[in-house]
Amino acid sequence: MTQSVHPVPPDTFLWEEMLPGGCHWSGLMRRGTALRIADTGGRANLSALFVRADEKLERYNMPDTLKAQHTAMLTRGHALYSDMGRVMCSITADTRGWHDTIGGVSTDAGILARHGAAPYQTHRNTMHRSAEDGLLIELGKYGLGVRDLMANVNFFSKVTVAGDGTLHYVPDHGAANDWLDLRFDMDVIAVFSAAPHALDTRADYAPGDVVLTAWHSGPADAADACRNACPENQRGFYRTDLLYR
Amino acid sequence: MTTFNLVESKLTPDTAVYDQVLPAGEGWLHPIRAGQTFRILDLEGNQAVDTLFYSADDFTERYSATETLKQDALYLTAGSRLVSSRGREMLTITADTCGRHDTLGGACSAESNTVRYALDKRPMHSCRDTFLKCLWQYEGGHARERRAVGAFTKRDITANINFFMNVPVTPEGGLEFADGVSAPGKYVEMRAAMDVLCLISNCPQLNNPCNAYNPTPVRLLIWD
Ligand SMILES: [Zn+2]
Fold it and tell me: Nearest-CA distance from B106 to chain A in Å?
């Protein structure tokens, strides 16, 4: 497949793959490579988990990511931390501006309650799938399971918190062809599901497609914007660099 | 000004079947049976009580911060259901004189302390170290619980509740560790809907001003 969506410089291009809405994907992403992740239709949700490739007990940690950067959402300049005080990957570009960290995953029971039954027998590959199902299937390919289903990131989705603490999903948050660049700062297994967000209130089951374009970005240099976004990230990137000396 | 829905308990300590003080920096792993009521009392105020729950029957079912958030609001208080990774109610908060508890902030660890505060903070005691120590030290409970605990590892330490912690999120998506809203004598009480194992680290964090750099003991009580 040749690159088609938001092209990267040809000399850095590695591969491109379309992840249809509702489907799941995983792969090894090495330090110094990046994914340009595009929401081609404007209503995609990409539920994501990250596991260190050579030590699967080290994985994306929502609380440490939020605490280190004093944020409840993710966008350009933010790092995604592991539970060992290291940066697994970081967002170096972003046209959407808000990615959800607290909404969790849609479940089979939730999708059934909202959209009714649509099994493979009658719907083939347009069957209704949940994000939890997709993530667990991909985790299973590495010997991982329900104990590894941590609080995840939902790229492209927006959930706000009102002053009284109530959560609000924002259904019209997206525009077609929004994209972000996710640079991998460690050797990481990325686990994705493009099924709907757990709090998506829209009546139709119509999760959007996601296009993944992999390229060589190189690791974060001394002047990197994510590294220098705050003193916490400088220390987090320093600790990450120690792994690769 | 946020108003909290404060609910007092009718239970008194003299009828409790379990009553123990847990000093700061200590861990606690203890069963709570379905139908029992569990109280955490903040003896000196603004202490963070990092807490996880596991189903006593199947430890792969555990407290889930995101499943809990899906059904309630961001902050936990009286009426909040604590929901498992399988979408089931584990416990419900039945009384709360503090008014707000955090389920986003997670536990401190030696490694995250180096990121949040300074590279030389790694030797300081942390909640994740306490959690890990609890998992191999536990000897109480029934045989099925001991089996479950023997199988616990760091793999099973997920995003936890911080009772008495105040971690507000702004409408713009900012997050801060605000001054505590707890005080000496405030408590939170919850009734178990299933047999659970409760894992607590009474936080030893010395770098965060929200506890005035002074971790303090809590009192743990259980009623049948
Ligand atoms: Zn702690």
Answer: 5
Angle at which helices A62-69 and A231-243 pack, to 10 degrees? 130
The ipTM estimated for the assembled molecules is 0.94
Q: Which pair of tokens denotes residue B57?
A: 């029957």
Low-confidence ranges of chain B (pLDDT < 70): 1-2
User: Are B175 and A70 within 8 A, CB to CB?
Assistant: yes
Q: Which long-range contacts (CB under 8 A, 24 or more apart) does B12-18 make?
A: B13/B221, B15/B223, B16/B221, B16/B222, B16/B223, B17/B222, B17/B223, B17/B224, B18/B220, B18/B221, B18/B222
A25/chain B closest Cα distance in angstroms: 22
Q: How many CA atoms lie within 13 A of B213 on its CB side?
A: 1
Q: Which tokens belong to A215?
A: 């390229």
Query: How far does the centroid of ligand 1 lie from the alpha carbon of residue A147, in Å?
Result: 22
Of B75, B85, B169, Cβ closest to residue A146:
B85
pLDDT tens, A163-196? 889 999 999 898 999 999 999 999 999 999 999 9
A-chain CB neighbours of B176 within 8 Å are 70
